[in-house]
Every structure is written in structure tokens, then in C-alpha cells.
Amino acid sequence: MQRILEPELMNEEEQARAYAAADFEEPHSHFIELFQAAFPGLDVTGFALDLGCGPGDIARRFARAFPACTVHGVDGAEAMLRCGQQIIERDREVHERVELVRGYLPGATLPRDSYDAVISNSLLHHLPDPAILWKAISAHAAPGAPVFIMDLARPQNREEACRLADVYMPGEPEILRRDFFNSLLASFTVEEVRDQLRQASLDYFSLELASDRHLAAWGRMPDL
Ligand SMILES: C[S@@+](CC[C@H](N)C(=O)[O-])C[C@H]1O[C@@H](n2cnc3c(N)ncnc32)[C@H](O)[C@@H]1O
Asked: Is 213 in the pocket of ligand 1 (CB under 6 A)?
């Protein structure tokens, strides 16, 4: 099945609210566990960057997992950031260590030039040009910084995408189910991401299927 693009930014109010209210406990805690397995024993300190942070659920979980780090999340959608800001303000454990900023990639102005870790979940499939993600990583990750990227993996066909939407979005609002289905169609295969990594000179990164609907790529930036 060919990739079918979906709208890049998630800036509809209803869409952002449904996404922020959804239960992502399973995939998002899996993201943190996979990061920890990819970099065993690592305690991230300093500043981490979450690219395409949405309402910041991964950023908050990352801040909780690594209490000595501050997380900056960047997203181009004001509606998503508004929802995220309200959630963060209520989260007394991490609210002083998570900052969400509005920025459109490429060219976003970030609070820092360089980050001690870079993470991203489910941004890649939104980008018409996937090179934008890998260029942002190369531009903002410090030498030696751990990088961990997770995204959906494109199924073989629409029927499989439909089945996955039935399995993983039962009882969720229709707008969320629609977005998930469209996201599956817009996502990349492992082979396509391998090619992207090659073009970005990051082909030494590890890359594998991380679940029946996710892929993950990770590695460290080269030392100076
Ligand atoms: C599916 S959401 C993922 C949100 C979050 N990472 C999570 O896992 O819950 C993808 C996010 O990427 C943002 N996005 C898409 N293209 C972008 C771009 N070029 N620059 C910044 N953000 C972008 C969207 O607005 C949306 O909030």
C-alpha cells in the first residue's frame, strides 16, 4: 500500500481535545520502557527535546522517568499546546521541568541550540518530507546524545489498518479513530525509514518493529 498523507498539524480544537483526553498509557509507557532498554542504565540529565510533542504526555512521562532532566517539547499546533499546558500545570511532580513551545519544523526557534537527549513519538508520519525529522535531530542533538524515535508502521493494506483501529481505538471518539486510521496510512515502513536513516547518515542507528503497529529507531549522535 502506498503512503497517503494526512494533514500535517493537529490544530483542530476538537481533534486536539480528543487526543489529549485519550488513554495512551500502553503505547506511551512502552515508549519510555523502550528508551530505557535502548540505553540501559542511562540517567538523562540536563535538557531533553521532544519533537512534535502534542499535548506533552510523552514529555511528562520522560521527565518523571528522569528526575534530573528538563524536557522541552516543540509542536506547531497551538490547539495541542493549549491542551498540554493545562495538563502540565496540574502535574505538580513535573510541571517545573516540562516546557512546551510552539514551533514549526523546519526552522522552529527552540529555547536551546543543543540538547542532551532527543525523543519523538508519532511526528514522523505527519511530515510530508520525513528528512525534516532527521535534520532536526542532527541540528539539535549534542554530540553523543541519545536519540529515540517511535512511530506507527504502515500496515500492508487498508483492511489491516481498519482492523488495528478496531483493536486499539474501541470506544474512543470517532475523530480519534479516524485520525489513527489516517495516521496508519500516512506512516512509513521499516524499509522506508532505513532509507531515510541512510540519507541522513544515521544508518548505524538501530531500527526495528516495536509492536504490531509501531517501529522504533535509536542510537547516539556521533562524538565530536
Ligand atoms: C500524532 S501527534 C503526536 C504527539 C505526541 N508526540 C504524542 O506522542 O502524543 C503529532 C504531532 O506533531 C505535530 N506536527 C506535525 N508536523 C509538525 C511540524 N512540521 N512541526 C512541528 N510539529 C508538527 C502535530 O501538530 C501533532 O501535535
From this structure: no
Nearest Cα residue to atom 8 of ligand 1: 121
Asked whether residue 206 is domain-assigned, the answer is: yes
pLDDT digits (tens, 9 = 90+) for 155-187: 999 999 999 999 999 988 999 999 999 999 999
**What pLDDT score was predicted for residue 171?**
87
pTM above 0.90, yes or no: yes
The residue type found at 110 is L
Q: Is residue 6 part of a domain?
A: no
Specify the CATH number for the domain of residue 157.
Answer: 3.40.50.150
195 lies in some domain: yes
CB-hemisphere CA count at 13 Å for 194? 7
Is 7 inside a domain boundary?
no
Range of the domain at 119: 13-220
Q: Is 8 exposed, middle or buried (0-12, 13-18, 19+ CB in 10 A)?
A: middle
Q: Whose CA is nearest to atom 25 of ligand 1?
A: 9
Q: Residue 50: how many CA atoms within 13 Å on its side-chain side?
A: 29
The protein residue with its alpha carbon nearest to ligand 1, atom 13, reads 52
- Work out how many domains the chain is built from and give that number: 1
> How far, in Å, is the centroid of ligand 1 from the Cα of 118?
15
Answer yes or no: is the C-beta of 54 below 6 A from any ligand 1 atom.
Answer: yes
* Residue 76 to residue 108: CA distance in whole angstroms: 9
Is 214 close to ligand 1, i.e. is its CB under 6 Å away? Answer: no
